[in-house]
Amino acid sequence: MDMKKLLLGSTAVIGCASLASAANASDGIKLEVGGFFKIVAMGVFDDKNNHHFGSERNTDSINHNAEVHFTGETTLDNGLTIGAHIELEGENAADQIDHSFVYWSGGFGKVQIGTMHGPLGEYCVLPPGSTANFSAWSPNAWGSNDPIGSNPTCTDVESDSQKIIYTTPNFSGFQLYVAYTPDNNAEDYTQTGVNGAGTPTNPDGTAHQTFGTYLTYSYSGDGWGVNWGGGGDWQSQFNNAGHSNDGKSSDYQTDLNVTIGDFAIGAVMEYYNIGGNDNNVLLAGGGMSYTVDAWTIGLQGSHGHYEGEGLGFAPNPGGSRDLNRVILTGNYAMGPGVSLDAELGYTWFHDSGSDVPDNRESYHAFSVAVGSAFTF
After folding, report:
1. How many other C-beta atoms lie within 10 A of the C-beta of residue 166?
2. Long-range CB contacts (< 8 A, 24+ apart) of 53-61?
3. Model confidence at 61: pLDDT above 60
4. Of 33, 77, 136, 220, which is the most exposed, with the fewest CB atoms less than 10 Å away?
5. How does residue 187 score in pLDDT terms, banded at 50, 70 and 90?
6. How confident is the model at residue 312 (pLDDT cuts 50, 70, 90)?
7. 21 phi and psi angles, rounded to 5 deg
8. 3-class SS of residue 255
9. If you write DSSP's letter for every residue of 31-53 in order, what string do you get?
10. Under a CB-based contact definition with an 8 Å cutoff, are residues 224 and 259 in contact?
11. Number of CB atoms found within 10 A of residue 324's CB
12. Model pTM?
């Protein structure tokens, strides 16, 4: 970590400590500290016979993901709740401060302003069967050395840039989230015009004036329930980068889960309409879980179909990429805020590009992993 990042991180912690002291003295805003720590030990056994993808990678790894959250909140005499939330990365990340925003909530709903995911990235619904560390979609640990990395559903085209999100009250199980992002290039102090003079710059390849929305519905009956979500987001303006195959992007996601007693099942689909020609991505899959006391067993599968340069991957003339993953998961709730989980996974990848040699068209990998997660 360089000196600038160290000073920024130290300033954030000192500022939060000062806020706590002030709050205690005035009995106003109370500061709470939370967060999580996730750790995984994994083995990946892939097809290396043709010296591709995994041939120069380790067969085992240990990784972790951690964040510390600072939240200060108070409720005024008129019933209005106001607060602030800051997320500090718990490892040597390039972006040391993750999300930071202020909010106001009451009978009108909730308004948040700051850096955070859009509604689709923050509130979307996913099928059952995942654990704190393992999933068939962008988990904490992905057991494969394929060139795509993971099938990333529940992401958006807004980025974590400065935005405003409005959340409606809950109406008979329905809740709507709406967001507006002025500039996708306005997240941290290193970007011109962010918390400085003037307005943010719009360099080539950057979107601005992005809108997002997501609607959820939840119902609990006698021994059964339904959980649904659906929405999308749209970049209304985009600065093209010369002769690059780019442009305005949008994406759409929906998921439906049904719970019957201790059994749950669901399916998800997400479509990325990536700017440019033939860059689109289609993701689909499902999952199920069964819970007995502190134990939960899950099964998930995901399929991703990638065209051209979809989601920033290298061009692939004349073909497409397909990434598939199936995992069996297990989770044991050891106690409040402490869990132990594991996975067995199989991943297979196929590249049908016309410029790809025959011996590099496919990739297969088995994975086995154990992990633990702590929330505080």
Report:
1. 17
2. 53/145, 53/146, 53/147, 53/349, 53/363, 54/145, 54/363, 54/365, 57/145
3. yes
4. 77
5. confident
6. low
7. -65, -40
8. strand
9. EEEEEEEEEEEEEEEE--TT--T
10. yes
11. 18
12. 0.86
**The Cα angle at residue 230 between residues 224 and 235, in degrees rounded to 5:** 165
Residue listed under structure tokens 């990638």: 306
Q: Where are the beta strands (DSSP E) in 197-294?
A: 206-220, 224-239, 250-260, 263-273, 281-292
Residue corresponding to tokens 């991943």:
347
- In this predicted structure, what is the pLDDT of residue 206? 87
Long-range pairs, 215-223, Cβ under 8 A, ≥24: 215/174, 215/175, 215/176, 215/177, 216/123, 216/125, 216/174, 216/175, 216/177, 217/173, 217/174, 217/175, 218/173, 219/173, 223/260, 223/261
Contacts of 93 (CB under 8 A, 6+ apart): none
Closest CA to 271 of 227, 322, 306: 306
Read off the amino acid at residue 255: D
* All domains in the chain, ordered by first residue: 3-375 (2.40.160.10)
Closest to 123 measured CA to CA, from 260, 227, 273, 266: 227
Name the token pair of 30: 């109370």
E-only strand ranges, 308-361:
320-335, 338-351
- The string of pLDDT tens digits covering residues 225-245 is 999 999 999 999 988 877 777
